[in-house]
């Protein structure tokens, strides 16, 4: 049986660990290690972890964020599969085996996620992942079960195992060797969009990203930054631009990227006219960051290209692209559910 390491990145998450660790520790899988990778917490997180004899603790010397924390932690852990699991996720007892079975059946599956439902409304999909992630023609992310702010009720309508564009970092399974060879998550992101960037890179190398709805978890969401927080808005807009500039082909950058900038500008001025100055400034600041760091982003594009070439196994996997605008479909055509997009 393949060895699986579930790694929960923690920073001052004492209350979350108290609430969510019990379900994780009840996971049914024989060859399993559960780790807490701690980003230099100042609370009593370690005391919570010490209640579980089999739980392993990995101490980092400072807060490296989501990306840096995971990269440093996973480099020290030996396993066949890593599971990046948020500290605010409740799991079901048999959540690991269906995904490992799926990934073992096809070695071109580089990453996979379970079906992610909302912890506070367990009948509905959760914002950050739902039943698999997609990108539209302009690079806007959405999910099978969640488009913008609309989270659908789970009626088992998306229960098929599916090749998607990205797997949620809230509960992402990944081949351990592939993670390390691709140099993990890009630390330029700090947090948000990093898992989409990682999935895009492995897809460019020919690997698949899958969703396995036979595995179910429940995500609280917003435990670190609420989705309306201006800092989250800034990171989402900034990191999305970085991701597109790093990974998209030149045809996209020449023809689609300027249109994407225009759509961001509309969103900024909509916020301004609504007197939402915090959102306006967050989007503007994201674009200013992109402009003033364009040469560094170009370097990261070269690094990503080298990573893809080094790990290339076949033609780029393009599953999970919507060839039309999700903004147009959602706001103008009022297509609020994923099934309507078809």
Number of strands: 13
The overall average pLDDT, rounded, is 96
N-end to C-end Cα span: 39 Å
The global form is: globular
Report the total helices: 12
CATH architecture of the largest domain: Alpha-Beta Complex
Main sheet summary: 9 strands, mixed
SS class: alpha/beta
Percent of residues in helices comes to 40-55%
Tell me the Rg in angstroms.
19 Å
CATH homologous superfamily annotation of the largest domain? Spore Coat Polysaccharide Biosynthesis Protein SpsA, Chain A
Overall number of domains? 2
CATH topology of the largest domain: Spore Coat Polysaccharide Biosynthesis Protein SpsA, Chain A
CATH class of the largest domain: Alpha Beta
Percentage beta strand? 15-25%
**In terms of per-residue confidence, which ranges show pLDDT below 50 for 5 or more consecutive residues?**
none
The sequence of SSEs as H and E is: EHEHEHEEHEEEEEEEHHEHHHHHH
């Amino acid at each position: 049986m393949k060895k699986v390491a579930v790694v929960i990145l923690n920073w001052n998450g004492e209350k979350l660990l108290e609430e969510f660790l019990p379900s994780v520790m009840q996971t049914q899988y024989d060859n399993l290690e559960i780790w807490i990778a701690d980003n230099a917490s100042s609370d009593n997180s370690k005391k919570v972890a010490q209640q579980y004899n089999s739980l392993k603790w990995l101490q980092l010397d400072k807060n490296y964020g989501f990306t840096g924390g995971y990269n440093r932690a996973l480099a020290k852990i030996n396993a066949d599969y890593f599971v990046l699991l948020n500290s605010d996720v409740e799991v079901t007892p048999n959540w690991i085996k269906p995904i490992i079975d799926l990934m073992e059946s096809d070695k071109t599956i580089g990453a996979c996620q379970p079906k992610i439902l909302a912890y506070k409304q367990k009948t509905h999909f959760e914002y950050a992942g739902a039943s698999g992630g997609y990108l539209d023609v302009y690079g806007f992310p959405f999910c099978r079960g969640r488009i913008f702010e609309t989270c659908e009720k789970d009626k088992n309508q998306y229960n098929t195992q599916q090749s998607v564009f990205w797997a949620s970092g809230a509960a992402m399974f990944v081949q351990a060797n592939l993670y390390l060879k691709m140099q993990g998550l890009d630390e330029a992101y700090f947090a948000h969009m990093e898992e989409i960037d990682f999935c895009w890179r492995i897809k460019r190398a020919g690997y698949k990203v899958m969703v396995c709805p036979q595995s179910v978890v429940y995500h609280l969401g917003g435990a670190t930054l609420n989705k309306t927080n201006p800092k989250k808005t800034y990171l989402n807009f900034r990191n999305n631009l970085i991701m597109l500039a790093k990974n998209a082909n030149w045809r996209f950058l020449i023809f689609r990227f300027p249109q994407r900038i225009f759509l961001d500008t509309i969103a900024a001025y909509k916020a301004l006219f609504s007197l939402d100055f915090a959102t306006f400034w967050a989007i503007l600041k994201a674009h200013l960051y992109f402009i003033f760091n364009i040469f560094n982003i170009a370097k990261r594009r070269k690094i990503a290209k080298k990573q893809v070439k080094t790990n290339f196994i076949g033609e780029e996997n393009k599953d999970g692209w919507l060839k039309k605008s999700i903004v147009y479909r959602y706001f103008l055509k009022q297509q609020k559910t994923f099934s309507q997009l078809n």
